[in-house]
Amino acid sequence: MPIKQPCQQAGDAPGLPEESASPAELLDKAPTKIARVLAYLLAPCNSLIRFEAEALGDHCLNSTIAKLTHDYGLEFQRQPEKVPNRWGTPCDVTRYSLPESQHQRARVVLALLNKPAKGRKGVAA
């Protein structure tokens, strides 16, 4: 399932690099799947469901969101939706997005996640 296109280019968002919304660029630049998912969700209007997160290398999006919530104190919007599964029948999923009110905190967390593992000791929570 392809990732939904953002409603605004990531380069238009203050403090976000231009490549933040491109899954291909994120796969090359971000050191971990959690950093790729967070960078993607920081781009304006971006959201993910579990099937879309596969393109970012995340095979268990709900666990990644739980880690970002519990370990780093980020709050996500959750929207239930139905999408067709592999066989075309409806499947219940959750669409995750990062509210604007969480963007500043998320940028701090992302900077921490992009540090070499040795420098990641401090938690941003």
Shape summary: globular
User: What's the number of structural domains?
Assistant: 1
Please list the strands of the largest sheet in the order they lie side by side: 1-3-2
> What is the terminal-to-terminal distance?
33 Å
- How much helix is in the residues? 25-40%
Structural class: alpha+beta
Our estimate of the beta-strand percent is: 5-15%
CATH topology: Arc Repressor Mutant, subunit A
Mean pLDDT, rounded to whole units? Answer: 81
Q: SSE order, as H and E?
A: HHEHHEEH
Can I get a quick summary?
Residues 1-22 are annotated as: Disordered. This protein is of the alpha+beta class.
Secondary structure: elements and pairs:
Blueprint: H1 23-29, H2 33-42, E1 47-48, H3 50-53, H4 61-72, E2 77-84, E3 90-97, H5 103-113
Antiparallel strand pairs: 1-3, 2-3
Folded structure, characterized:
It is a single chain. With 125 residues, the protein is of the alpha+beta class. It has one domain: Arc Repressor Mutant, subunit A, CATH 1.10.10. Helices cover 35% and strands 14% of the residues. The protein contains five helices and three strands, in the order ααβααββα. The protein has a three-stranded antiparallel sheet. α1 crosses α2 and α2 packs antiparallel against α5. The longest helix has 12 residues. The chain is globular and about 45 Å long. The chain starts with 22 loop residues before the first helix and ends in a 12-residue tail after the last helix. About 11% of the residues have low confidence.
